[in-house]
Design brief:
Elements lengths: L7 H14 L2 E11 L8 E4 L8 H16 L3 E2 L5 E11 L4 E2 L5 E3 L13 E10 L6 E10 L4 H15 L6 E9 L1
Helix pairs in contact: 2-3
Amino acid sequence: MRIPKTTLPGSCALLLLMGLAACSGPIETRSGIAGAPVAAATAVALVPLPESASAESLAARTAVAEALGRRGYRLADDAPLRIDVALAERAAGTDVRALAGPALSPAKRQRLLQDCHDRTHRLTLAAYDPARPGVTRVWAEEHHCNGTLAASLPALADHAVAALTAATPERMTLRAGRD
């Protein structure tokens, strides 16, 4: 079958747009809190990482420290409130659940015409005072096909730190970037 020349440019443009849509577009950043909110301007100490920590863990800790400063928190090594930073990456088709409970981090289905498998980038902060009971956990996560964990870190840190003062347990925002 022969394709008339008049439809060829339109077909190429459509294919190009579909290809670009598979790699870029809106990125959903989900974040949430479990526990009591932590007021801005509070003095906090980041829990030190072990010497064997990965470069990604060090970058996550740095991104969190910068986000805390931007949001008005004061970093002080002797602060009673400690914040532990955890970073994870996994296949997005796998969800994380509590025993017999709802998904804490739901799985994502692959989009139509997507040529690679999504990964979930998740940053979790645990804020606690060793002298008092209770832990506040906040998290932020995104799904990416081609985006890197390093590129996600600034947005994840900003959303996780913003969740420290959240009035609602969970929220979702959109941003532009490489999916």
